[in-house]
Write a structure and sequence with these properties.
Largest sheet: 7 strands, mixed
Order of helices and strands: EEHHEEEHEHEEHHHEHEHEEHEHHEE
CATH superfamily of the largest domain: Vaccinia Virus protein VP39
Structural class: alpha/beta
Number of domains: 2
Mean pLDDT: 93
Number of strands: 15
Distance between the termini: 68 Å
Strand content: 25-35%
Strand order of the largest sheet: 11-10-9-12-13-15-14
CATH class of the largest domain: Alpha Beta
Helix content: 25-40%
CATH topology of the largest domain: Rossmann fold
């Protein structure tokens, strides 16, 4: 039996006919195989195994047995295979695990090893995962493996048309311009945010609590598809909203959602837009500023202070890290990616660089807010309120 990869807890090796029963415990389980419209029978299971043996011989890779070091059992299969995506043949990382071993991080650990193998050993410049849209755990594994959603396709299995997400990662990481990234994510953005960002749903409800009563005018920075506006309009149905975002596709989605509301939408970077002087009772931003540098944020906050009416309020909900070490590491990674792609520091490309809560508060105070305080945190989602 040929061992291909090793991780702290796992071995990945080629399967043999002796692995049939362990494989059957995965492929013949209804719940495990729901993304394939049900469990496999014995003939389908053998065909699946035969296909992997053929792949090992012809391609040099396939789906490998995942062996748990602690007990020597085959707990799943993870590996690389060629797949057709709208007529293009691409290398895909796939994974299926015995249900008894779910929720232990084994799939992510194995998938990360496969991505490293694909880049370092096989020399691929891009590696994919193709996941049924309803298979949220598998989609989360791909995202934790550094992949982003590239597009949505339809696949058919057992006579059923199934929407799938196509995700990929590149080597070196290929950063996208901010507007391009969110244009690509727009069709699946709402679903992704609700399913994957810890504290997001509760954060929307909390955000509304800190918007001052009686507001008439609201500026929403990086409004996207308007997820946060759903809760706001429940409490303030007549508020006049100005929304700014880079993605016209997302703004179109927002406009369709709230066609009966008083909304003005502007497609531009909020870093370059003149908000005016004392125009708004409240300014909000939610999950949008964690791509910016300290300098960019501080300058933006100064414009926000000017745009607020006397006594106005700024409410920011965003991804924030706990330690300075975490923040420094992410900024260092971003700098390396920018250098690899010859991107100017002033250009806006998608890479998360969340700051600590303390740094956020310091920037807001230095920009001119009279008081700033953290009011809520769940997971990494944090809400800070600045008072003019």
């Amino acid at each position: 039996m040929k061992i291909i990869l090793e991780t702290p807890r796992l071995f990945l090796r080629e399967m043999t006919q002796d692995d049939y029963h362990a494989l059957a415990s995965i492929l013949q389980d209804e719940q495990t195989m729901y993304a394939y419209e049900g469990a496999f029978n014995e003939e389908e299971t053998q065909a699946w195994l035969d296909k992997q043996l053929t792949r090992y011989r012809d391609d040099g890779f396939g789906l490998w047995a995942v062996i748990l070091k602690s007990n020597g059992e085959m707990i799943g299969q993870t590996g690389i295979s060629w797949q057709d995506v709208d007529g293009e043949i691409v290398p895909e990382i796939g994974y299926l695990f015995n249900r008894s071993y779910w929720h232990n991080g084994y799939a992510t650990e194995a998938a990360m090893a496969c991505k490293d193998f694909a880049f370092r050993t096989l020399g691929f410049k891009e590696i994919f995962s193709i996941v049924r849209s309803t298979n949220i755990p598998s989609k989360d594994v791909a995202i934790r493996n550094g992949m982003i959603i590239r597009k949505r396709i339809i696949r058919s299995f057992r006579g059923v048309n199934m929407p799938h997400f196509v995700l990929s990662a590149t080597n070196p990481p290929r950063l996208l311009k901010m507007e391009d990234f969110f244009d690509i994510q727009a069709p699946t953005y709402d679903e992704y945010m609700r399913d994957n960002v810890a504290g997001l749903i509760d954060g929307y409800a909390e955000l509304v609590k800190h918007i001052p009563n009686g507001i008439e005018t609201l500026l929403d920075l990086g409004c996207g598809t308007g997820l946060e506006l759903e809760e706001i309009f429940k409490v303030f149905p007549s508020v006049r909203v100005t929304g700014i975002d880079l993605s016209q596709i997302m703004l179109n989605t927002l406009s369709d959602k709230y066609s009966g509301k008083n909304i003005k939408l502007i497609c531009t970077s909020y870093l370059n837009h003149d908000f005016g002087i004392e125009q708004y009772d409240c300014v909000i931003s939610f999950e949008t500023l964690h791509h910016l540098t300290h300098v960019q944020k501080t300058e933006l906050y100064r414009y926000v202070v000017k745009a607020l009416k006397p006594g106005g309020r700024y409410v920011e909900g965003d991804y924030m890290v706990e330690t300075q070490e975490q923040e420094d590491e992410l900024f260092a990674q971003k700098a390396a990616c920018y250098a690899a792609q010859n991107i100017k520091d002033s250009d806006l490309y998608h890479f998360d660089t969340p700051c600590t809560v303390d740094n956020q508060i310091k920037m807001l105070l230095s920009a001119g807010f009279a008081t700033v305080k953290k009011v809520w945190r769940s997971g990494n989602t944090t809400i800070i309120v600045g008072q003019k």
